[in-house]
DNA sequence: GTGAAAGCGCTAACAG
DNA sequence: CTGTTAGCGCTTTCAC
């Protein structure tokens, strides 16, 4: 690999002159610049990224850290962040936190291989986040509340979402409602569940212990939990799945058991994934404002990078997407037919 | 930010000793190591990633370059590559080539910010690829055939796929078949179209010019092209969409026009995206072996990184996924009813 | 304008 | 085992 030294030598100028010419500094004569550029071309010279970063101690790159790069759920979010990054002249890379402490993500954070980060990865501990963040290294955290120097939150009001979903079910006449839970250690799940409970309590409704099943946020989990519920005999008139993926799995379980949705049991989800619109029946769900939260996160990061002061926490509201998986009922029981 | 120098000073040892201690070299006494580690802890010291990379001129990171990070289509591919990278002790970052010449992706490639790359981004020119690749910088290209030093191809046989899709339609009795095309400059589209033509010719069938519409690989495009086809009056008995996204859009257009699928017109797609299984009717399509091609690409990259010799090009075969969007017909015309 | 020289933070010979 | 030293490739004063 040719270095700038080689270029300077070939062009017959000093190292610094080559550097100036290459970065388009105006204090180099056009003629000299041409000479340097020509030499660079001949040698197929490329700047070495690291040397540059090391020298400037800025990378012009921000990282988006996700639990799993392959989740389909993030499309919208990624796009909006990407837009903001691009329009600020920054590069965006995405990295996965799979592998925990030893993951790419943690290395990028701790070793400051980027200028800042947006994190949506529950397997990165608060400690790591606190250790990494600082005045010169802002981090926007989107999956938990956390405070500290250089740390800012962009959160979606999950409790409100859980409440809205449950409230909607109640308003449609449902009184026996089950909650299929996500992972026990998930902050998001906890919020949604709290909202569920608030709505239930408000109406003097009780959660039946045997309906409280866990499906760990994946389709298969929703499927199994629902199967179990069906096996136990007594069905609720509506079930609130802590996320859409589980609702999709649940729907399959009901279908296989010959239970009509929403005829016999109504379903509501959370997230509004792309699939939600396409399954039969289309899933009523709670929509997270991914676009808005993505651009907000991006903008905040750049403000911090510019040294501007920002609030420590931002909360976005959710919305209900009414489709066809919830049936209006009379007396709290959907009935046999 | 504390440097290794500060750590050494605080621990009262030489710079190199600190470096050795920090990287766990065995030639440092346990006691000294402890002292150094303690000093590092006190100063909240973190290695500077760039300095390390610059020195070692290796990053232990590979990049996956995608046109658009937010495409849902890549999930499986990303996962399989990620697995391979992780098990080789490498980090994987994903970056987008949006922005063309000035994109993050191009910078990472040209400035060698990673040790190698897997590319699936048609907006990165062959020239850039050739300029970036070399003996010390392997690139696996998955979206076009290209040869050169350090360049390897992993391709899916799109022509065969186009042929299989069309052949299937013909075998089901269809004789008037339309092809809704992807972007004119897409290599993938060209292959699929060629396969289509081969099957048509083989059977002595003609492509009707007015059915040759383009939908540029997006849902909206498929929708519009189909609308146009419907407006023109005469419908084919089957249509082959160059990808599933367009087929989804096309389905919507047919639905809106009250044309029954597959009753009046059969549909076949290409890619087998997640949605394909969930739409009504479930879409018959050509499946690309994403897992296989992802791991193959990953393995090849690491072999090249290790200096092993590999073939210049690998081709993977596709498969047909039979679902319910194609109807078997008698005489080449689906008929009015 | 141009050139010499001083590092950015780190690793790895090398000599003690 | 420990300390000295020479760079990795680049940018950027500071004199000329």
UniProtKB/TrEMBL annotation, chains A, B:
GO molecular function: DNA-binding transcription factor activity; transcription cis-regulatory region binding
Residues annotated as transmembrane: none
Protein name, UniProt field: LacI family transcriptional regulator
Pfam families: LacI, Peripla_BP_3
Position of the signal peptide: none
UniProt entry keywords in alphabetical sequence: DNA-binding, Transcription, Transcription regulation
Stored Gene3D superfamilies: 3.40.50.2300, lambda repressor-like DNA-binding domains
Organism per entry: Paenibacillus stellifer
Entries under SUPFAM superfamilies matching the protein: lambda repressor-like DNA-binding domains, Periplasmic binding protein-like I
Domain HTH lacI-type: 2-56
């Amino acid at each position: 690999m040719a270095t700038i030294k080689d270029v300077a030598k070939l062009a017959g100028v000093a190292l610094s002159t080559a550097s100036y010419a290459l970065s388009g500094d105006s204090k180099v004569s056009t003629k000299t610049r041409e000479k340097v550029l020509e030499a660079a071309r001949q040698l197929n010279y490329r700047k070495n990224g690291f040397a540059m970063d090391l020298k400037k101690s800025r990378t012009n790159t921000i990282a988006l850290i996700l639990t799993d790069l392959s989740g389909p759920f993030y499309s919208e979010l990624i796009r909006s962040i990407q837009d903001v990054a691009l329009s600020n002249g920054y590069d965006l890379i995405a990295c996965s936190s799979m592998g925990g402490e030893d993951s790419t993500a943690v290395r990028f954070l701790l070793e400051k291989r980027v200028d800042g980060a947006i994190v949506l990865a529950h397997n990165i501990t608060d400690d790591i986040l606190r250790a990494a963040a600082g005045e010169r290294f802002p981090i926007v955290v989107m999956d938990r509340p956390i405070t500290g120097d250089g740390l800012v939150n962009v959160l979606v009001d999950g409790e409100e979402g859980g409440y809205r979903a449950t409230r909607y079910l109640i308003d449609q006449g449902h009184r026996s409602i089950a909650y299929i839970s996500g992972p026990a250690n998930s902050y998001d799940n906890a919020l949604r569940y709290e909202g569920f409970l608030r709505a239930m309590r408000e109406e003097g409704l009780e959660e039946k212990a045997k309906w409280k099943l866990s499906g760990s946020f994946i389709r298969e989990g929703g499927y199994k939990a629902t199967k179990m519920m069906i096996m136990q005999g007594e069905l609720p008139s509506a079930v609130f799945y802590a996320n859409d993926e589980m609702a999709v799995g649940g729907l399959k379980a009901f279908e296989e058991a010959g239970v009509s949705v929403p005829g016999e049991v109504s379903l509501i989800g959370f997230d509004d994934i792309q699939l939600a619109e396409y399954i039969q029946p289309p899933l009523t769900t709670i929509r997270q404002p991914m676009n808005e939260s993505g651009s907000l996160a991006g903008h905040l990061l750049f403000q911090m990078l510019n040294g501007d002061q920002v609030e420590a926490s931002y909360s976005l509201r959710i919305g209900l997407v009414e489709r066809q998986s919830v049936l209006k009922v009379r007396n709290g029981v959907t009935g046999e037919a």
